[in-house]
Specification:
Order of helices and strands: HHHHHHH
Largest sheet: none
Keywords: Antiviral defense, RNA-binding
GO biological process, one term: defense response to virus
Structural class: mainly alpha
Helix content: over 70%
GO molecular function: RNA binding
Function: This subunit may be involved in monitoring complementarity of crRNA and target RNA.
Shape: globular
Number of domains: 1
Protein name: CRISPR system Cms protein Csm2
């Protein structure tokens, strides 16, 4: 998926979200097998999700706390302090649900779709610490790619 093409489509089509929403739902269905995604597939999914979030006017600051919490857990895993990160993953799940719940009507749908994609991955991690430790880096990279492409595609900060 070419992000420059996506960026141009976002500029030209105000209803771009309606074209990409079914793809986001498909990604959510595939999220349970997140660990099997190939790197190119993961990147395409991140671009697709980011384009949907931009088309729905979601601001980066609305998911920044989640990214910060995920970054802290990733640091814990990288430095070997990962004896059990299931509690950390549970807190991320709570924060994600809270973020969706407190969102305004105009951005709630975008956040709900992001939740639909991330929740199955986080749920699996909260149930199996080995899975969490082995796949948390990939999850962090995926979320970071969503935020990066959100900015690249024209997503606003605040």
């Amino acid at each position: 998926m070419d992000p420059f093409v996506v960026k141009n489509q976002l500029k030209m089509d105000k209803n771009y979200w309606s074209k990409v929403e079914p793809k986001v739902k498909e990604i959510a269905r595939k999220a349970e097998n997140f660990q099997d995604w190939e790197p190119g597939e993961t990147l395409d999914y991140a671009i697709t999700i980011a384009s949907y979030l931009v088309s729905k006017d979601l601001r980066t600051n609305q998911i920044r706390k989640i990214l910060e919490m995920v970054r802290n857990v990733e640091l814990k895993v990288k430095t070997g302090r990962d004896e059990d990160i299931r509690d950390d993953v549970a807190r991320i799940r709570l924060l994600l649900a809270y973020t969706v719940g407190k969102s305004q009507k105009n951005t709630r749908e975008a956040l709900e779709h992001l939740y639909m994609v991330l929740e199955p991955i986080l749920k699996k991690m909260s149930e199996d610490n080995n899975f969490a430790v082995n796949n948390f880096g990939k999850f962090f990279d995926f979320l970071q790619a969503i935020v990066a492409y959100h900015r690249f595609l024209g997503g606003k900060e605040k």
